[in-house]
Design goal:
single chain, mainly alpha
């Protein structure tokens, strides 16, 4: 009879399976690197013509916007690496820099979308700008909510790291949307959701359950994404009236 508990103890002492151990240690670091790769891949399709060598020079704020949002991606990689190497004290100190950067990014993102919207309408004479304005507005709202919750729960690592991951994923539609196929078929939000599903799969494999942050966040995001997508693609009159007043 004593062999049963002894076997159980022996199994517990072995620790997680090698694959699960890798997910435990490296998942968020790997996702931060994947985030950087997605940003480089997506913006490589447009950055040359839209920022570095445009036919019509872009407003200066676009450079500040690009620097701030690129800085967030680098910050996400650095913080993930610091956790992986157990430099928790440095991670916490730098966290306040990230909180400040993220807080600035919200009004900067909103302002940039307005300035660029006016530029696209009045200088480039593009169509559909007013309807599309709801997308960057939604992005900044979602990012700001997740960032605020991550700061509030900064002393609860299991909540904090997932919320930072969610906030960062929410910024990726700008990169995914640079791919014509994804943009034309409304798949950029789906790509973001797949990133979040990867986080849920990691939880299932490592902890045998999905963390409540993902359980609450993904359905809410899916509903919000569907809403803004419908408003954008249908040229909803009520939103066009609001956007027209904003863009002038």
């Amino acid at each position: 009879m004593s062999s049963v508990p002894q076997m159980a103890v022996a199994r517990m002492g072995r620790g997680p399976a090698p694959g699960n151990a890798l997910l435990t240690r490296y998942f968020y670091l790997a996702m931060s690197l994947l985030t950087a790769a997605i940003v480089v891949w997506g913006f490589s399709h447009t950055v040359e013509q839209s920022l570095f060598h445009p036919a019509v020079p872009r407003p200066l704020i676009l450079w500040f916007h690009g620097a701030a949002f690129s800085g967030w991606v680098l910050f996400f990689i650095l913080q993930s690496a610091l956790v992986r190497t157990r430099n928790v004290k440095v991670h916490r100190k730098l966290g306040w820099f990230g909180a400040g950067l993220g807080t600035v990014m919200v009004p900067l993102g909103v302002t940039t979308s307005i300035v660029m919207g006016r530029f696209d309408i009045h200088r480039l004479h593009e169509d559909g700008i007013e309807a599309f304005l709801i997308i960057p507005f939604y992005d900044m709202l979602a990012f700001g909510v997740f960032l605020g919750l991550a700061i509030w729960w900064r002393r609860k690592p299991e909540l904090h790291r997932r919320l930072i991951f969610l906030a960062t994923c929410g910024l990726l539609d700008a990169a995914f949307g640079r791919i014509d196929f994804l943009f034309n078929n409304n798949l950029f939000f789906a790509c973001i959701d797949l990133m979040i599903v990867a986080g849920m799969a990691r939880d299932l494999l490592v902890e045998r359950r999905v963390h409540r942050v993902y359980v609450a966040a993904l359905p809410a995001l899916a509903v919000a994404q569907c809403f803004v997508n419908v408003v954008w693609r249908s040229n909803a009159g009520w939103w066009l009236a609001i956007a027209h007043r904003i863009l002038g």
